[in-house]
Structures are given as C-alpha cells and as structure tokens.
Amino acid sequence: MADEATREREAGQASISLIAVVPGLIVAALAAVQFALAGHAALSAANAARAAARASYTGADPTAAARAALPDALMGGARVLRREGRMEVEVEAPRALPFLPPIVTAASADLGPAGWTPDG
C-alpha cells in the first residue's frame, strides 16, 4: 500500500514539474524564432543595400532596386538612405510576438569602386 501511495505522489510531482518547465521552453523557443527573424532581416538588408549601390552606380533608381531586392514582409517599413558615398538600408524585423520591441537592422554598401566619384 505504501508503495502505491509513493508512486502516486511521484507521478503528481512529475506533472507539476512539467507544468513549471513548459512556459520556459515556450519562451526559449520564441526567443530562438525572434533571433532567426532578426538574422533574416539583417541578411535581407545587406542584399538590398548591395542592390541599391549597384543601381546607383549604373544610374538607375537605388530605392526601387533596394525595395525589389527585399522580401514582401520587409518592404513596408524599409528605409533607403544615401550617406557619405554609401547606400544604407534599414528594415524592421518581423516580431514573433506582437508585444516584443521592434528590432531594426541596417546594412550598407559602397556606391562604387575605390576612387570613384559620382557623376564624374
């Protein structure tokens, strides 16, 4: 009899431990997803900055080229800037949960080869 009571208490303890651990696992999984989304946004911003720099070098519209290089999910809040001989693209990473703070990633690329001057 005592053996059965001990087993029931241990089974109950295991259930309580599982319930206590599951929220932490969910938070850890969502954090991993958020880091993956931020990494994807950073890589996409770098690709868009290179596209903008190429377009500017050839005389095309750098903003249109950068937006065309971005995935649809990142196009909405993207900013394309020209700063000191470089094209810079800023994008906001999608959020895993809506209450998380925004993560803005930026990347830049040179406008042309070394020693190159625009329109000259």
Summarize the structure in short.
With 120 residues, the chain is an alpha+beta fold. It is rod-shaped and about 85 Å long.
Radius of gyration: 25 Å
N- and C-termini, Cα separation: 94 Å
Residue stretches low in confidence (pLDDT < 50, at least 5 long) are none
Q: How much of the residues is beta strand, in percent?
A: 15-25%
Envelope shape = rod-shaped
Count the domains: 1
Q: Biggest sheet, in brief? A: 3 strands, antiparallel
Identify the strand order in the major beta sheet: 1-2-3
The number of distinct β-strands equals: 3
Helix content: 55-70%
Please trace the helix and strand order, writing H or E for each element: HHHEEE
Structural class: alpha+beta
Number of helices: 3
Mean pLDDT: 85
Give structural notes:
This protein has 120 residues and is α+β, with helices and mostly antiparallel strands. The protein has one domain. The protein is 57% helix and 16% strand. The protein has 3 helices and 3 strands; from the N terminus they run H-H-H-E-E-E. A 3-stranded antiparallel β-sheet has the order 1-2-3. The longest helix has 57 residues. The chain is rod-shaped. The relative contact order is 0.15.
SSE inventory with pairings:
Elements: H1 2-58, H2 62-69, H3 72-75, E1 79-83, E2 86-92, E3 104-110
Antiparallel strand pairs: 1-2, 2-3
Helix pairs in contact: 1-2
